Amino acid sequence: MCFAQVKEEPAKRAGATEQNALAPRLMVVLAFAFLFSGATHALQLIDDRGATVTLPRAPQRIVSLLPSLTETVCELGRCQQLVGVDRYSNFPASVQKLPQVGGGLDPNIEMIVALKPDVVLMATSSRAGERLQALGLKVVALEPRSHADVQRVMLKLGQLLEVPDAARIWRAIDAGVSAAAQSLPPGVRGTRVYFEVNQGPYAAGESSFIGETLTRLGVKNIVPAKLGPFPKLNPEYIVRANPDLIMVGQRSADGLQARPGWQSIRALREQRLCIFPTEEANVLVRPGPRMAEGARLMARCLIEKAPGAKP
Amino acid sequence: MMQARVWWLVWAGVLGALALVALGICVGSAGLENLIGPLLNPAQDPPQTAMAQQIVWQIRLPRTLGAWAAGALLGLAGAVAQGLFRNPLADPYLLGSASGASLGVALALAALGGGAGMLGGSMMNGGVAVSVFSSSLWVRLGLTGAAFLGAVFAVMLTLVLSRGVGHTLRLLLAGVVVGVVLGAMTHLVLLFSPESLQAMQAFMLGSTAFVGWTSCVLMASVWGVCVLAAWLLARVLDGLSLGDATAVSLGLPVAPMRAALVAVLALATGTAVAQTGLIAFVGLAAPHLVRSVVKTTHAHLMLLSSLMGGVLLMAADTLARGLMAPQELPVGMLTAVLGGGYLLWLMHRSNLAGGRAA
Questions:
Q1: Helix intervals (H) in B110-167
Q2: Which of A144, A202, B132, B178 could make a disulfide contact with A149, Cβ separation 3.0–4.6 Å?
Q3: Domains observed in chain A
Q4: Which CATH class is domain B2-353?
Q5: Which residues are registered as beta bridge partners of B238?
Q6: Which of A199, A236, A260 lies closest to B131 in CB terms?
Q7: Using the beta-carbon criterion (under 8 Å), do B51 and A242 form an inter-chain contact?
Q8: Contact at CB, B325 and A200, closer than 8 angstroms
Q9: Alpha-carbon distance A127 to B82, whole Å?
Q10: B257-297 pLDDT, tens per residue?
């Protein structure tokens, strides 16, 4: 609040005395003043639980309990306001130096309180929210699951953190995904892809975040939307679907070729297998601002391995 | 009369198993689907036939037979435990041996792969990480060995805590405590090796999804050894059912035979757990089902429980694949619901009977 008032004072004085000569500069200063004047009013937003959260001003100390929310805060240029993150938040590198307050589902309540955050960002699925609120902390619960959610969460956090160009940042990310799709040769379209999230085997279906990216890249997911976002499949289903290409994170790649009956799958017979190192797999599975990078990683895989990529 | 019933039950077990194998081969990723057509008319559509062959021979048959073998091992372990501890509620789970086996598997995985991920991922880059679903024979043997050691350790711990098998309630309490503590330790190990966490979670719910011929043959051979050993050692169980003193007075070497039976119990449980994860209640329910039909000697009871366990798990596996196809239910969850339900009903019924008798 103090900061905003200091900024406003010179703006008023300048307006009173040197109106004509300083008109262009005045406009800039006034715009600035307008921007910050918002901070003097209470901030209100409705989070994904439907709860109305009121903050006296834009938060200066933030704890984030979800990697994708951490990444979004940093993408919005408010990384330096983070004072604590969950143990899975590891991007950008600067957040690795912050205090870790446990996992999103099992956060260390005491440690969070000790950090005196203005706001705690977390997933709606975590039960810690009630407890933190009872202790007098402001909690904003957001659950990014789909591409549309990433946009919504980014705009909402932009509102909360008073970042005026959140919409522009989102458009850049969205354009990045489209550009990745356009970078693909036409022969790649319609490639039948199987994306394994882990060795259940759990697959990423069409309705998952990963599935949405695949759809935008113009390839065919062998797991239809009706099976849900991350179904546990009968391995036989994948053998029957006979995908052209398999995408998998390094953690679950071991022994893929040696699974009973899998040698006959076209993707494995023709070595059309993309194994994403853990760091890249994180980018792919997190519904956050790195979704364009995720789309580029998948596009790179398709260009290198898809049957129709090289005519 | 009893002998006739025993034979009747043996045939029922064998025929039931054969019928379920036939059914298990027909149930696939899209419910009941026709793969027999392409198999019988290879000329019609060669690629379709090749795939049908692959699916039947490499996926459905080994996992169906694997489910039978795992169930047979658990049924046998259950019958051995119930005879050994003279306790109708003894079971590989209640004695903590299954928890010990899964702790062994988790430790082995953490030492081989998951731990390397924690140490900066240097080994991961070489691709040396080992998965719980791996189908390499050496990995399977190693995991089975680890599970066996874990199971032996757990049973020993239970026996030490309960100060022998004499006191039923103490034995069960000790078993439950050991199971809970070892289960918590398994979770602790997994917490420190996030690399193997997801795979282990799927594994702990029980799964026959990736049982191939390697696991299948391994389980079948261990089953052969265990059944033979149990058959030879059965006399001591008959003796023990009349009390320790009687068994000793019959001239039986009670102590070594007991140790051998604990080894059979641990080997059977460990082998099943290492291939298919935690599958609850099969070991408990199978001997009860057999006893509800026929009262017989322990040699027969163990064989029949084994056959019954195989049929039970195979049926559960077929259901787990078929109910939501192409999605799969974790088979361990299904056996817990079905087996647990059966036991609740059994307890309820025996309560009523007991009330009337009083």
A1: 115-118, 122-125, 137-161
A2: A144
A3: 2-40 (no CATH), 43-164 (3.40.50.1980), 184-305 (3.40.50.1980)
A4: mainly alpha
A5: none
A6: A199
A7: yes
A8: no
A9: 42
A10: 888 888 899 999 999 988 898 888 899 889 988 988 888 88
